[in-house]
Amino acid sequence: MMKKLLPIILAVFGLAGGVGAGVALRPAPEIDPEAHVEPKEKEPVEFVKLNNQFVVPVVEDGRVASLVVLSVSLEVSQGSREIVYQLEPKLRDAFLKQMFDHANIGGFSGTFTAASHMDSLRKALGEVAKTVLGDQVHDVLIIDIVRQDT
User: Rg of the Cα trace of the chain?
Assistant: First the structure.
């Protein structure tokens, strides 16, 4: 009986050894230095979607030319969800002020979704969020944005 099992046992050990050697000796993955991006934060984060959308009027020649509707989420440190919801009224007020300023300088006119317009809005909202919530905020994400011309 041992003579019949010996080849099977040797084959299993040989296969296991080959797989182990293959895993241990595989080459390191190549990293394109231009495509490699370091993580922004080392700590765990969570995303908090603000409850309601923001509605921003775009005024041209003294009349409302369009309405912009935005949905915003925040990337915050793990465990900060409750503080975001506690301070949401203050945060919404500060965001609206910033969005009105953005609208008044033409940020929602023309090609309002151009990268430069969106980046300046995100940066401004991020600065406002940090004044309200401190270092718990890592990023502001604009989830949805739409403009309805009147």
Answer: 27
Give pLDDT tens digits for 3-45. Answer: 665 566 665 556 655 655 555 666 666 655 555 555 554 689 9
Q: Among residues 19, 92, 82, which one has the least CA distance to residue 55? A: 92
DSSP states along the chain: -HHHHHHHHHHHHHHHHHHHHHHHHPPPPP--TTT----S-SS-EEEEE-SS-EEEEEEETTEEEEEEEEEEEEEEETT-HHHHHHTHHHHHHHHHHHHHHHHHTTTTSSSTTSHHHHHHHHHHHHHHHHHHHGGGEEEEEEEEEEEEE-
Burial of 72 (0-12, 13-18, 19+ CB in 10 A): buried
Paired sense of beta strands 63-77 and 45-49, if any:
antiparallel
